[in-house]
Amino acid sequence: MIGEADAWGFTPPRCALSRAPTLPLQGRVFQCDRSLTRRSALLSLPALALLSRPAHAVEPVPLLFEQLYKSMGVRGLVFSDMVQALKGQPVAMRGYMAPPLKPESRFFVLTREPMALCPFCQSDADWPADIVVVYLDRTTPLLGGGEAVVVRGRLEVGSATDLETGFVSQLRIVDAVFRHA
Questions:
Q1: Comparing C-alpha atoms, which of 115, 155, 148, 116 is closest to residue 132?
Q2: Residue 33 to residue 22: CA distance in whole angstroms
Q3: Where are the domains of the chain?
Q4: How confident is the model at residue 39, as a pLDDT?
Q5: What is the mean pLDDT of residues 129-157?
Q6: Environment class of residue 8 by beta-carbon count within 10 Å: exposed (0-12), middle (13-18) or buried (19+)?
Q7: CA distances (Å), 62 to each of 73, 104, 129, 155, 179, in order?
Q8: What is the DSSP string of 26-94?
Q9: Nearest to 154, CA basis, from 25, 43, 55, 19
Q10: Integer Cα distance of 181 and 176 in angstroms
Q11: More exposed terminus of the chain, fewer Cβ within 10 Å: N or C?
Q12: Are 64 and 80 in contact (CB under 8 A)?
């Protein structure tokens, strides 16, 4: 009976698996064919496109320089509750690209206010407390100093020393991308 056409020209599905579920049709029971057809493959393409979205497609949380610290005391700067909650999460910040050391790099410093001088050429006393080091997802041509940018990436919190440069940072946006603001 399986594989034979009925009086209306309907050919029941072929058995693909020995334990395939059955399908009742006009009083007869057929085993379902679970093989992939061209039609089912084409119909599944939209679902495949949705599933293939990158995991980092989560919208970043906007973060302002004013929201970085709760207080500044004898122990130094204390991170805000918002920063602590966003640790490891995608964020977006608007600021100014400090003048870079090289025209292409994997990192730059994001500042609240535009800076005319290279931040690494200044003394610690002139270095602003509200900066964020941005580590890009790849080596990228950087903009001239003082350019307004929007940065998106994952927030890292706590003291860390860059092994290549020796630069110490408290806040970092990693795996980042940027664009003109």
A1: 155
A2: 10
A3: 1-53, 56-180
A4: 65
A5: 90
A6: exposed
A7: 26, 26, 20, 11, 15
A8: TTEEEEPP-SPPHHHHHHHHHHHHHHTS-GGGSPPEE--GGGSEEEEETTEEEE-HHHHHTTTSEEEEE
A9: 55
A10: 15
A11: N
A12: no
Q: Indicate the pairing of strand 131-141 with strand 76-79.
A: unpaired
Res 168: pLDDT: 83
What's the topology of domain 56-180? OB fold (Dihydrolipoamide Acetyltransferase, E2P) (2.40.50)
Model pTM? 0.64
Question: Rg for the chain (alpha carbons), in Å?
Answer: 29
**DSSP bridge pairs for 169:** 160
Reduced to 3 states (helix: H, G, I; strand: E, B; else coil), residue 131 is strand
Task: Determine whether 9 is exposed, middle or buried from the number of CB atoms within 10 Å of its CB (0-12, 13-18, 19+).
Answer: exposed
Quick: pLDDT tens for 94-129.
Answer: 999 988 878 888 999 999 988 876 655 554 444 566
